[in-house]
Amino acid sequence: MDNPFGFKHMVALLVLVLCIVFFSSLLIGSTRLDIRNILVPGSVDSIIFLSIRLPRTVAAILAGIAFSLSGLLVQSASGNDLASPNIIGMNSGAGFAVLVFLAFFPHLFGLLPLVAFIGGIAAVSLVFLISSLVGRYDSSGSLILAGIAVNALFNAFISALSSLNPDVLSSYSAFSIGGFSSVQSSQLYVPGAVIIITASACFFMAEQMNILKLGDEIASSMGYCPRYIRIVLVALSALLASSAVTFSGLLGFVGLVTPHLASLLSGGESRKTMVMTIISGPLLVLLADLLSRTIIMPSELPAGVFMAIIGVPFFIFLLIRRARRW
Amino acid sequence: MVEVRNLSLEMKQKTLLDDLSFTLERGRIYALLGENGSGKTTLIRTLSSFYSEYKGSVMFDGKELRAAGRKERASFHAVLPQYLPQLRMHVSDFLSMYPEASRYLNALGLSELMKEKMNTLSGGERQMVFLSLVLAQDSILYSFDEPEASLDANYRNKMENVIKSLKEEGKTVLVSLHDISKAVEIADSFLVLQHGRLVFSGSCEDFLEKCIYKSLFGLERGDFRDCNGKFHIAFF
Q1: What's chain A's average pLDDT?
Q2: Among B84, B89, B137, whose Cβ lies nearest the Cβ of A222?
Q3: Quick one: how many helices (H) and strands (E) in chain A?
């Protein structure tokens, strides 16, 4: 393992940092909250805490878990370390479906995660289909290029919809880059439950993810069916990412950056990598959100801006490292 | 025992395996010969459920491959493929996923590889790490797809010792090879494929006496003794 602390120590350290960032996220913002006042029912601090800070912080944690785990699953399924829900079109597919649904059926708010899932899975199916027509699904070139094409298509649809029907999306740019500034607790119940249940289910797939690393020939000889494992992983990945899209928008790069970071810290075994992903994903998103609302206080930027600032150089680093390796 | 009856495989309207029937006995080494594209790798993959859309019957100790559950299939057939995935992780982390495998790596005398990273290993070293994983599977049939293609003399010896020890344990071994001299040296029986059809199935003695090497591969035989007096058969 690359890190000198060992897995358990690294987990403990990251959990500690996550706790610190979690409490900072609850207390720091354009209005500094006093813990004693928060506990007084009906006080301004209490209202800000319960209606703004707590939903926002919980949303950032849920989105961090969902996008980063989704990235890990899709990288494992495709055998491609450049894949992520954002890059292969999952987020924009889910985002487009959400906007269409909000435009035509705004009263059926509770069905949003299902609609987002259908959009996400449709987009990723299209990407895998195009990719398999022009090359293998684990060929980085064809998967990424197909993802870029599908992403562009759905982003164009999103732009068209937001231009034609401005009421649907009061802040299109904030949605497209992702953030938590207008998250309400009512938006989190259903997607939050879906994310927690799906994330728990992912641990049952760790053994299969380990087997996929061996290549399809050895996996088959061990009695597994790699094709079915991939389908399940992509479905779980779409469920996670699309649930998060419903409240966070198209938050990018966390799904790309976190699995690599987690793999580096865990040594690569899938169950350990999942644990690291579930801790470091929320940590990165919370940090991005905290930066987004403190760096130019009292104004704020969408959290997606800071995720991109962290994610883009990392993505370029991966491309360079991959090019050098081959 | 592995019994293959009328095995055929078609993909994209192309016949990859054409009505193959043969039996692999326990405690024997079978050399699988044929030119590139003759169907050697496809046959090995089909016997391991990689291709499930085959026609005909594949039985392992009387049980049909198609009807078997996951754990049963794993006990049927272990495969060391020709091309192995590149992994970015330590060997120790890799083998920790399959605990029995590290015991076999130690048995191969390669415990020092545990400290290395998978992506810095040489081709031969990586093959040995995957070999230890394959050996941990404890199956009826072990298939090796061109196992010596990227090995130096030291690792080639280790690989051959593993193949011979599997035979001594009563396992069935199927080895895909291009080197006919090597096949004659290590195998008890031969299967020769041509365009997906089985054109020869028989013992090593039959292969030599009936001059199959000449009729199928257009080769001549030359016998010689090395400087230690050991007898060899070469084909040219």
Answers
A1: 84
A2: B137
A3: 15, 0
Q: What is the ipTM of this complex?
A: 0.86
Contact A123, A146 (CB under 8 A): no
- Overall domain count for chain B: 1
What is the domain range of residue B177? 2-84+139-235
A267 near B CB under 8 A: yes
Q: For residue B124, is it within any domain?
A: no
Number of Cβ within 10 Å of residue B157's Cβ equals 11
Give the model's pLDDT for residue A1: 47
Nearest residue of A to residue B126, measured between CA atoms? A214
**What local confidence, expressed as pLDDT, does residue B55 receive?**
93
Pick the CATH number of A7-325 from 1.20.1250.20, 3.40.50.150, 1.10.3470.10, 3.10.450.50: 1.10.3470.10
Is residue A85 within 8 A of residue A255, CB to CB? The reply is yes
Q: Each residue of B146-155: pLDDT tens digit?
A: 888 778 888 8
Smallest CA–CA distance, residue B164 to chain A, in Å, is 21
List the CATH number of the domain containing B205: 3.40.50.300
Contact residues on chain B for A216, CB-CB shorter than 8 A:
50
Strand B29-33 to B189-194 pairing:
parallel
Among B65, B111, B211, which Cα is nearest to A221's?
B65
Inter-chain touch B90–A269, beta carbons under 8 Å? no
- Residue appearing with tokens 């104004």: A299
Task: Looking at the complex, report in whole angstroms how far the Cα of residue B93 sits from the nearest Cα belonging to chain A.
Answer: 6
Whether residue B97 lies inside any domain: the answer is no
Alpha-carbon distance values, A2 to A8, A71, A159, A263 (Å):
14, 22, 44, 10
Q: What are the residues facing B14 on neighbouring strands?
A: B11
Out of A41-55, B127-141, B146-160, B216-230, which region has the weakest mean confidence (pLDDT)? B216-230
Phi, psi of A296 (to 5 degrees): -125, 45
Q: Is residue B146 part of a domain?
A: yes
Candidates B72, B79, B102, partner chain A, best to mutate (most A CBs within 10 A): B79
Task: Please calculate the CA angle A185-A189-A195 and round it to the nearest 5 degrees.
Answer: 120
- Contact assignment for A268 to B90 by CB distance below 8 Å: yes
Note the pLDDT of residue B39: 92
In angstroms, the CA B144 to CA B159 distance is: 10
Nearest to A160 by CA among A108, A95, A111, A109: A95
Q: How far apart are CA B140 and CA B133, in angstroms?
A: 15
Contact A71, A84 (CB under 8 A): yes
In a domain, B94, yes or no: no
Contact A236, A198 (CB under 8 A): yes
